[in-house]
Design goal:
5 helices; single chain; 122 residues; mainly alpha
Length: 122
Amino acid sequence: MELLASIAERRILEAIARGELDNLSLKGQPIAAEDFSDIPEELRMGFKILKNAGFLPEELQLRRELTTLRDLLDACRDPDEGVRLRKRLSEKQLHYNVLMEKNRRNPAFRRYTGKLAARLGL
């Protein structure tokens, strides 16, 4: 890992010397460090990349969709649309329940799911 850090450091210094980093929006401002201490070191970069790209683990995405469907159903006034929404909600809930049951058997999942959900504000 030291080799990669050394290469990255050298390339950053070269970019600075060429002036390629002069017009960055946060130039001169501190950037808040993210705490990934509860995630195994070998998974941290992957989590950061996925988080920055806006991707959520499937179970968190399903929870978000379930919340949206419940809100839509609460606001729905059309009986036909209500039937369609209840069907989609039921399908998503079943998918979520099956996924969670499968994941509950995975020790790593149990350790990190709660912490990740809290960190993502879900």
